[in-house]
Structures are given as C-alpha cells and as structure tokens.
Automatic annotation (TrEMBL):
Keywords: Periplasm, Signal, Transport. SUPFAM superfamilies: Periplasmic binding protein-like II. This is ABC transporter substrate-binding protein. Its main location: periplasm. Belongs to the bacterial solute-binding protein 1 family.
C-alpha cells in the first residue's frame, strides 16, 4: 500500500489525539511525599520535639526525621552539606554562634519573604532571641527555636540550712543568702566546699565552648564585655580582670576536682547526684534537676536565679532553610517551622521542659502552674548578653578557651590571658 504525505500526517495527528485522551483519562500521579531531614543536637530539647513529630505528619503529610549527634560534630557536618550542590538536610537547626557565618557564606534562604507570604506573626518572640540570631530590618535568616541563656542553679536546702548559716555568719560576718554579686557567689562557693561536704560549684572548664560560655557569665556579671561601643575587642579591662580572677579562684578553690577538663554533661551528673551546691548553667536544666526519677537526691531542692551581678550569657538555636534545596522542600520546611514555633506546640514543649523563645509561653497559665520558676527564667532570658557573633565566632571560642585554660591551670596570669584573648578577638574581627 502506498501512503501519501497528507495521509501520514492525518494518521499521526489521530494517534496523538487518541493518546492524549487516554492520558487524560488516567488519574494524575501523586506527588512524591516530602521528607524533611534535620541534623539535631542530642539534647533534651530535641527529644521533646521528636515526640511531637507524629502530630505534624498527621496534620500535613510531611514526614520529619531527626539525626541526633553531639554538638562538637554538628558544624562540620552541616557545612559539608551546605557547600554541596544539594543539601541532604533541608531544614536546619543553627546555633547562634554560626548565625554570622552561615548567612555571610550565602548558605541560608532569607525567611522574610516566607514570613510575609504566610503572614506569620513574629511579635510574640522575645526581641533578644531574634537579635541573637542576627535579624536585620531587611532580612531574617533564622527563626528562634529555643533559648539557652545561663543563670545560677543552687541548692535551696543548703543555703537555708541553719548550721551552715550560723557557720557562714561566724566566718564572714554576713548572712548566708542568695548571692547578688559575683564576689559573694565565689565566697559562698568556697565556703560550701569547705563546710558542706560538696563542691561549691560544678564547673565546665573544658577548653573551647564549655569554658568560653561559662566564663562569659562572670564577664557580664562583672560589668565587662567582649566588644566596646565601637565594635572593637575590649577584654583587657579592669572589669574583665575582675571576672577572670574570680573565675580562676572558683575553679581552683570552689569547684569539683578535675573541673578544668569537665564538660556540661559532667556538671549535670555532679549536680544531679547532690554532690554540688551550685552551677552556672543553662536555665532549662532546672526541670532536669527536678525530675524525681532521674535526680531523686536533689529534686525539689534546686532554685534558679539571674546570674549574680545581673547578667548572664545568652545563647540560643534557630531554625533555618538551606538555599541549596528545592522550592518544594523549602515550602515544606517553612510549614514545619511555623508549626513547631506556634503557641500551642511551644506550650506543649514547655510543659516537658522546653526553653521558650515566645513571651506568651512564659505567661501561659498551664506552664506557670507546672513550672512557677518560668517567671524567673524570663528574667534570665531578657537580661542575657551575647558572646560576639560574627563569621569566626566558633574559632574565637577555641582561642578564648585556650587562654582561660591557661589561666585556670596557673600557666598564665589573668592579664596575659586577657591580652592574648583580646588581641586574638581583634585579629579575627579584622579578617
């Protein structure tokens, strides 16, 4: 049979038309469900959120999977993904110490367009928690996740013990009471070690993040700062020397044996066991100490106060979205961020010991009924001051931590350690 050109074209068009009809009659293929992957620090806060994830999946159909690891390994593992063509982690937990580095490197999506499009209300967030994560008038790269401002945890039974009160009055001429100055705190710490059979302070002196964060509380309480009004390093000051002298005095004469190499986990175990009078630490650890199952020796006997001197170290984590993910993943990530930081979910988290970043959670009746100390905690958060946040914050922790260790171990004078720490800070700022 011979086919002319017109006949072939007509047959082809008929075939295409028929195929279109068949295709249209088939159900559309469902979009692949999105799974969000997040690298999370292995701490109580992560477990609190993880327990609520089935609720989110039920509401949205979006699955969220947490990969939990220790803090020291998080930064490098995240960076390797954020510099790849496409990140496996499509929703991010970002420490405030990286809040300068990650946006400067161009790794994070600006969340302001997401906020505007969804009309997400940021006003309930405590302003300091947003500022801590580097928000500006024009851009928002991180939404606060939880706060870890630091205050003083102390044993109420020991500070109220009549025999100890009498002994302290005899020894010092002062009443044994909750300290309001840094000097009083260190004096009470040393007294408790000498008279109460416990370490006066459970201290995390390990070089790097542990001792840098711990010392920051002493610095701010002594009226010192890392930067002056012009943004220049200002650690070689009388206030900073006062802070470091008291820090060294406490770690040498008030703290537990081995404090110069101790971590946060070490101090938690010490306080939980009833073997310490106090610890300068993250305020959200009080619910852990009040757990009668985990810490039966001290449950109900631990109080919280703002750092003696009026200011502690303020820290926190934020949620971010990596730029090197698909638009669909970014939308799913934003849906998750809105849900996990909503008032309802934040209250549920707070009832399990979460450290809120929303002011309306600190005043929630159910939260205050279970945790009356959240009223004090809001003061800890609102008065907290920040470690310097810039591209090299993490590197500066190591530099500062080295100098603090040298001073604590008696290998450097306070003046020499502070001069090196101040010069090192300025050098990194100049980069």
């Amino acid at each position: 049979m011979t086919w002319n050109k017109q006949t072939l074209i007509k047959m082809l068009m008929t075939a295409v038309s028929g195929a279109a009809v068949v295709s249209a009659s088939l159900p559309a293929r469902a979009a692949e469900p999105i799974t969000l992957h997040a690298l999370m620090e292995d701490v109580p806060e992560t477990k609190i959120i993880e327990a609520l994830l089935p609720e989110f999946e039920k509401q949205t159909g979006i699955k969220v999977e947490f990969e939990k690891i220790g803090y020291p390994d998080m930064h490098d593992k995240l960076v390797s993904q954020l510099t790849a063509p496409q990140s496996y982690y499509n929703v991010l937990e970002v420490d405030f110490l990286w809040a300068g580095e990650f946006p400067a490197a161009g790794w994070l999506a600006d969340l302001k367009p997401f906020v505007e499009k969804s009309r997400y209300d940021l006003t309930p967030f405590i302003p300091s928690t947003l500022d801590l994560l580097g928000r500006t008038k024009d851009q928002l790269f991180l939404v606060p996740m939880y706060n870890y401002s630091m205050g003083l945890l102390y044993r109420t039974d020991l500070i109220g013990d009549e025999k100890l009160k009498a002994a302290y009055k005899t020894a010092t001429g002062k009443e044994l009471a909750l300290p309001t100055t840094l000097e009083d705190y260190v004096a009470i710490s040393k007294f408790m070690k000498a008279n109460a059979g416990v370490a006066g302070a459970a201290m995390q002196g390990q070089r790097g993040d542990p001792n840098s964060m711990e010392f920051s509380n002493y610095l701010f309480s002594a009226g010192g700062s890392y930067l002056n009004a012009d943004g220049k390093a200002s650690l070689d000051t009388a206030e900073a020397k006062r802070a470091l002298d008291l820090y060294v005095d406490n770690i040498q004469h008030g703290a537990q044996q081995g404090a110069v190499s101790a971590t946060l986990d070490d101090t938690m175990r010490l306080m939980c066991s009833g073997s310490a009078f106090s610890m300068v630490t993250y305020w959200w650890m009080l619910p852990q100490m009040d757990d009668a199952v985990k810490c039966p020796t001290v449950a109900g006997k631990v109080g919280l106060s703002v750092m003696p001197g009026g200011h502690g170290e303020s820290g926190g984590w934020g949620w971010g979205i990596p730029k090197n993910t698909s638009p669909e993943e970014q939308e799913a990530a934003w849906t998750f961020i809105q849900w996990v930081q909503s008032k309802d979910v934040s209250v549920k988290r707070a009832l399990e010991g979460h450290a809120p970043v929303r002011s309306d959670v600190y005043t929630d009746a159910a939260v205050l009924a279970k945790y009356p100390f959240y009223k004090t905690a809001e003061g800890v958060v609102s008065t907290g001051k920040s470690f310097p946040i810039f591209t090299y914050s993490a590197q500066y922790e190591d530099l500062l931590g080295t100098q603090l260790s040298l001073a604590a171990g008696g290998q450097a004078t306070s003046e020499a350690a502070l001069k090196a720490a101040s010069d090192g800070l300025q050098g990194l700022l100049d980069k």
